[in-house]
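Re: duplicated header lines in exported structure tokens

Our pipeline writes sequence and tokens for each protein into one text file. With two proteins the header for the second block appears twice in some exports. Here is an export where it did not happen, for reference. First protein block:
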Amino acid sequence: MFFFGTLENGVHGLEPPPEDAFDPASYGIDWEDYDNDIIRNHHDTENLPHAVDTNPFRAHYPLHFSHVEVEEPNCPFTLQQLDALNDNLQQLPFWGFDDMNSRRLLWMHALDICERIMDPAWCKLNENSVYSFQEGERC
């Protein structure tokens, strides 16, 4: 919407144009449409204030909300596998950093750990019910 509006109408609202190029008629409100009785009547008909509340910040909420059914996400891990993932991620040197490079590395390692946890050739359940990698790697 912003992109096409910028193409059709030029840049509005981000930075004021230079003083010598400023044309108030082309910047901001379209006063012809604002004064158009057909448009104003349509707006007033379709945007009635709520009868119960006169607060302008709450006056136009819908009377009936749509019901959206959201299914519970299907996590492929057991609780033990989730604990193993969390334990492994927290031991990484870039755990807890907020910069994007650390987050990218964290996601890459998380994907690698998830693939290993789900691969029975790499991961096995040991006697303590803790997942561990074969070949001496921690899971």
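Second protein block, exported in the same file:
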Amino acid sequence: MRSPPGSSERRLGVLATQVTKPLRPATCAQDRLPACLRPEFVSAGGLDAFDTVLVANRGEIAIRIFRAATDLGLKTVAVYSSDDALALHTKAADVAVALDGDGVPPYLDIEGVIAAAKQSGANAVHPGYGLLSENAEFARRCGEEGIVWIGPPVEMLELFGDKSAAREAAASADVPVPRGIDRAISLEECHDFFASVADDGGIMIKAIAGAGGRGSRKVTAAEDVAEAFAACQNEATIAFGNGELYVEEYVTNARHIEVQILADQYGGVCELGERECSVQRKFQKIVEIAPAAHLDPSMRKQIIDASVRLAKKVGYSIIGTPDCHAPLAFIPVTVR
């Protein structure tokens, strides 16, 4: 079934649209989403800059982008590792280019993906999500090679891709953050931090370049610190190509609330509401519910206001998802 008119642009978001007029806050709850997405605020643009999109991803993520790009009249390029040669996403694109190696590492090889784009004639790259999608160096290399980067600005990737720097940014915007160490740490520093907060419930070891719960472990016993630290390092290196870790206190009995924001280059920031993401397995979300049920209105306002305040403080100009704990404590921001 062919998509209804306009659905491609909405699905791709940053692929074919750019904000050309300042966003203004919605006036009431029921028109909050349309106020940011009506034609008078968002207009198509940028398609003249490229005609072929390489999707630096795999599986369903890549297939969804291929469908939307095809609806927009763009040619599509898939990449695949040796063990993905028969994967469905390779059949959904106009062209498929093999990467060197098997498993996840080929999809994290920046130079390999750039080479595939040049080999296929792709003049734009869409990273999807996960893998290299939040890698500032990948975005920078695309620009250096004259390839359009369909994603967040390098500056935002650098800031929010480094979770320790993101914590500092949140604190500078008067957004509460859990106690922690805002830089890459050693195992010895991790042990010392655990000792300082052990009576309060434990710690969370997290990947600095991480997302989606990968490279994260909760530790509630001192004898488990070393094993968890090594496991996080290994997982982060495999998933993100960066094994650096940071640490923060574990917030007990907290709810995981996400806020969707949309910002432009004129300083306008719209919030599109919050969602409940507390149902998780191994710190990865299983279901999201919007709006968050039984969330105290004052807490909802605090979380949304803090998200908007952070976006304005750092000059955010794209779509993003600040994550918070309720009671209010900033976690990360996922840039889109």
